[in-house]
Amino acid sequence: MRNIKIGELKKHIILFDKAHVPLMIYGTFGIGKSDIVRSSAKDKAKKFSDRKFIDWMSADDSTKLDALKNPSKYFALIDIRLSQLEPSDIRGIPNIFNTQDVPCLQTIPWSWVMYITRPNACGTLFLDEINLAPPQIAASAYQVINDRVISDRHISDGINIVAAGNTALDTDIVYDMPNPLKDRFAEIQVTFDAESWLNDWAVIHCHPMIVSFCSFKQSWIHHTFSDSADKNVTPRGIERASKILNMFVGDKAGDITISPFMFDAIAGCLGNGWTVQFKAYLSVYRNLDFEKILKNPEIITNAEEYNIERRYAIIGGCTERILSISDDKKISTETKYKRIADLMKVLCYLPSNLFVLAWKQLHAQGKSKIILSVIAKNLECYELLQARHSEVLNKIV
Predict the structure, then answer these.
(1) Among the listed residues 23, 46, 26, the one whose alpha carbon sits nearest the alpha carbon of residue 126
(2) pLDDT of the residue at 349
């Protein structure tokens, strides 16, 4: 079976979709398989100017009803967890009130089945946790995947089918998919790639201090314990921890209210081991004298005083401050530009690889335009950028 990095998954989904080939994705839990399938569906929906993206499982009843009546108006993601279904959920329940003249069994299917079998329906049918489903459920999926038929109805040609499952090492209840079912898919196995996750996902969805810590401690982005000694660390858990951290961010840029309560909540997301290390990292960050650094940014080039851990903490502190200041509507444009320029000067004194890391976060948050405006208006900042990072300018402009 072909083994690819998780960062390459989206282009494979696009390829097999264009070829009208159903795809089965294997990979360990918590690395973002489902998120990438969802992201791919949203990206595809954007290509249809006349269709609106909807997540069928969370859409309200009125939207679903309109989609059933007017399928050409929508692009739907139908995320089905097969491990939670009964065979009748796929086939439909018998219609005991059948009033047809022909005496035959008819079934009443779920609304999502009705949608994907509409002639003009368009979207992605995502069969998640397929190998956690009991064999009788998997057997019900045969016809869906191979013949594109469900509940005696043909699945629209505009619906692509993607399935995902865990590996046998993840849990004792993973079922071996029967060979006839496996043969109905193209199969790939994905492995976690820390760099891809940091550059493509974390910079958008996680707090800057989380991103800088994970960049410093990449081995702790995905870390599992075979003996259940502590909670497994996964990208999914890190995103939850980031949401917790955001709840303790103060009104002042760079201000985080540290408390045992916060760390208990983060430990609930990622376990004690990860939290202890992150707590130590935040302690390094809080002990930085940012006023001193802003007045004399070149001091961070002193490797003895500002070791690699402190420099990563500076990345987190500066990017968090820039994001906060750029969104602050209470301060004037002139003041905003001055503060951002001072912070950019600090980042310029970092080594090029760390400067690029900070830039990726700011760019992912949509702040590159304002920062480039700041640099263009501040000669000192512009010359400093040219002098220290001319070799990486093509990566950030």
Answers:
(1) 23
(2) 94
